[in-house]
Amino acid sequence: MHKQRVLLLAVLAALSGLALAEEEPSVPPSSDGPALKGTKQAIPASDVYDLITKSETTFSALYYGRDRQEKQPNNSNGGDIRVNALNLGLNFKSGYAWNVLGFDAAAHSSIRLTKGIGFSEVLYHDYKDMSNPAEGGGGKDKSDAVLSQAAVKFRQSPDGQGFSARAGYTPISIGTMGTSGGLQSHSYRGFEGKYKLGDFEIGYGWADQFRNEWDNRFRDMTNSWEQGRSNGSAAKQVDYVNSLGLRYAPENTFIDFGVGEGKDYRRTAQIAGSYTWKLAGGDSLTGVAYYFQGKDEAQLGMKNSQTAWHTSASLAYTTGGLTVQGGLGKSHNPDGGEVNFRMTPYGNSDNRNFIQTWGQDDDFVWDGTQVVKLGVNYDFAKQGLPGFSLGASANYATGLKNPNGAPDSKAHEIDLSAGYTVQSGPLKGASIGVYPAWYRSGDFYGKRDRNDVKVIASYSKTF
């Protein structure tokens, strides 16, 4: 495995060099490419060599630091997270041979800079390594390097219209399947196909393996939250996940609908929509609405499960550098407590990026939750300080269901943010942000009080 990773990085570096170097041509200028074997005819370089000449390679570096303290009785480190990690990545995207066929490849290395505590979700987590007593028997975060993407791609038309497809180890974003991630994108082993006609798009995605950011390989998906990686797990395989999606996205409007299934485990459906009103003086008002539902299948999921659902909506008003937002959300999952948006318990990602009332320390999607969210953000460019921003938001939730008929709980969270993005010079695009958060759940059994702060710094360069 180590030799394969070294070879992978060498290949990516070589491809990057080919894309960057302006070497002397290996054939006379009058020829389109090297001669075909046994003939004097040249390969048409204007078509085939677009794979390399029109490729791009992106180098990325991202620092992630987090200190989360969770109050758990009789467990000093229970729920705590302390991590300092560096993620380095190479992402190669080819051009298109004959203007239709290409390939992408990406490799990432996640490096643990200091000793840590807890399941960070940004480093490879070895569930079977119990060598660190501070982890409380829950495994250990480690450094690792992975091949995160390797896929062929096809397009019918350079303008994005018509049919397009990807297959291999690839991100997929269709309907209820998504590939949100932290320091790098999660990926599937599968394929996606889309057909676009004007502002309409229909697509289908299918996969039988998945790699989370905190894993070092692609694995079969299961009905167990940790994909059967811990000792004593009795995980059963989910053969595949798949989803069908429809999208309509003209100017200022967005409607996205999807249905999905984890084979014999779970079925999901969701719809999201947004519209932006352009107001006088350059102001704008944007409304977003989202609804999701999911139900377990009896074969691998919970028998006789009820339909779980979440809905949330928001309005955001922007004037100058100021954006003010308000949102409402409600969730229902009497069988499982917290709403699960995935098509397996934990081993595959989802497309829940449309939730309008989440917080840094909680998504506020527990059974019975009714939540109000208020937020404000200011971009200081209008004040002569481009790149600087400040933000604050507050969530207040009621109705969180406790077990055994206990009274409902309340919870609230306050999130702050401060960021800067370099506007010019050799480090243009580099950014740093600080994100403090405070979550309080009172007597709620499902999640404890938390104090949290994240520091994230990133830089990328595309060649």
From TrEMBL:
| Keywords carried by this UniProt record | Signal, Transport
Concerning InterPro entries, the annotation shows: OM_porin_bac (IPR005318), Porin_dom_sf (IPR023614)
What is the superkingdom listed in this entry's lineage? Answer: Bacteria
Instruction: Give the signal peptide range.
Output: 1-21
As for family, the record states:
Belongs to the outer membrane porin (Opr) (TC 1.B.25) family.
Under the heading PANTHER family, the entry gives:
CHITOPORIN
Its recorded name reads OprD family outer membrane porin
Q: Which organism is it from?
A: Chromobacterium subtsugae
